[in-house]
């Protein structure tokens, strides 16, 4: 089984990337995830459940500490081929 997580941090700032968004990106890029896609209004990561759980925990803690007032997270189970 694999998990795909989509997340956003708020508040948004269209002129300059907020520190909480930079921290969130740093967390997911440093994790041992299979795929990381960072966008201006949302981010997607994918990987093994244990790695995803740890990354989401760090993402929530560090982005809120860096000033996020809201973190939206959606988790989907990705079925592997042949499963």
Compressed to H and E, one letter per element, the order equals EHEEHE
Helical proportion, percent range: 25-40%
Q: Looking at the chains present, what oligomeric state does this protein adopt?
A: single chain
Largest sheet: 4 strands, antiparallel
Overall radius of gyration: 13 Å
Instruction: Record the strand order, biggest sheet.
Output: 2-3-1-4
**What is the 3D shape?**
elongated
Number of helices: 2
Would you tell me the structural class of the helices and strands? alpha+beta
Mean pLDDT rating: 93
Beta-sheet strand percentage? Answer: 25-35%
The total count of strands amounts to 4
Query: Which spans of ≥5 residues are poorly predicted at pLDDT below 50?
Result: none
User: Termini separation (Å)?
Assistant: 8 Å
Question: What is the structure about, briefly put?
Answer:
This protein has helices spanning 19-30, 49-65; strands at 2-10, 35-38, 43-47, 70-78.
Topology (SSEs and partners):
Blueprint lengths: L1 E9 L8 H12 L4 E4 L4 E5 L1 H17 L4 E9 L5
Antiparallel strand pairs: 1-3, 1-4, 2-3
Helix pairs in contact: 1-2
Write up this protein:
The chain has 83 residues and is α+β, with helices and mostly antiparallel strands. The protein has a 4-stranded antiparallel beta sheet with strand order 2-3-1-4, covered by helices on one side. Strand 2 and strand 3 form a beta hairpin. The radius of gyration is 13 Å and the shape is elongated. The protein starts with a strand and ends in a 5-residue tail after the last strand.
